[in-house]
Amino acid sequence: MQQSKAALEIGGTFIQVGIGTKTDNKWTLNNKKTFDTRDPEDTLLDLVTYLQQFEFDSIQIASFGPLCLNKDDPQFGSITSTPKLKWQNFPIATRLSQALKKPFAIDTDVNACAMAEFMLGNHNVRQSLAYITIGTGVGVGIIVNGQCVHGMLHPEGGHILVAKQQEDKDFKGVCAFHGDCLEGLCTNVAIAKRLNCPITELPNISDDHPIWELVGFYLAEACQNILYLLSIEKIVLGGGVMNRKLLYPIIDKHLRRLVNKYVEIPENYIVEPQVEDVGLIGALLLQ
Ligand SMILES: [Zn+2]
């Protein structure tokens, strides 16, 4: 029998929805649609109205966070302490589930992306993979022992600290919570602020600009920490900032220099994403 699931990738700016159908062990997405992320009640109405048209067995959600992922907690499936105030403590998964009368599965958008790359990307990994997205925020999804990592919460690797570079010492960073954490130093907002230009100007900045070495160095530090802590087999980097393809060899170079052969890093350790519609496909793979 054909299996159908509704997939949602909930971002702070827009929400992607699609209906996934599994045939011969392969998921295909149809009826894809993008909605603006409005106030939670309005957004919920948009999503329910759209999804009611289709037949499916469950609702699969990859969402921005932080999220409550503890199934024993009454808040399970809620977005918790987001700076988007109206979304704070909004039980998005439960409300969708009640309105559409279907069960749900939920994880962070980056854990879902990590799962999609782990299961469907051609990365030659056995049990672990990290997915880092660098855009208007920095998110880190982690697969260990073939599972998305959960615990007290879920990984929030965008907020780890990295060693600040001398030439960047006066930049205070842009993270609303921590200033110069990884996210505070590497998002497109942080890059634009250092260059004193709007984000829309960033594609016009030359590859020769020293900002890319700096951002690449910080991301290499993050990769180094992930490698040491979790012995991750492969790190996939995506998101808008990584459209600057030059960053891949820069990160690789700095990572190898920092690690200094203490562990042997395989070729192609830092790679681009391979799965199309990675967030929605990742949502479909959540248990
Ligand atoms: Zn932070």
From TrEMBL:
The cofactor(s) it depends on are: Mg(2+)
Q: Is Kinase found in the keyword set?
A: yes
Q: What is the lineage of its organism?
A: Eukaryota, Sar, Alveolata, Ciliophora, Intramacronucleata
The protein's Enzyme Commission number:
2.7.1.4
- In terms of superkingdom, the source organism counts as Eukaryota
Q: Which SUPFAM superfamilies match?
A: Actin-like ATPase domain (SSF53067)
The UniProt entry, under Pfam families, shows:
ROK (PF00480)
Q: What CDD domains does the entry give?
A: ASKHA_NBD_ROK_BsFRK-like (cd24067)
Q: Which UniProt keywords apply?
A: ATP-binding, Carbohydrate metabolism, Kinase, Magnesium, Metal-binding, Nucleotide-binding, Transferase, Zinc
Q: Which reaction does it catalyse?
A: D-fructose + ATP = D-fructose 6-phosphate + ADP + H(+)
Its EC top class is transferase
Organism (species): Paramecium tetraurelia
Protein family (similarity comment): Belongs to the ROK (NagC/XylR) family.
Please report the name of this protein according to its UniProt entry. fructokinase
Can you name one GO molecular function term for this protein?
ATP binding
- Report if keyword Nucleotide-binding is assigned: yes
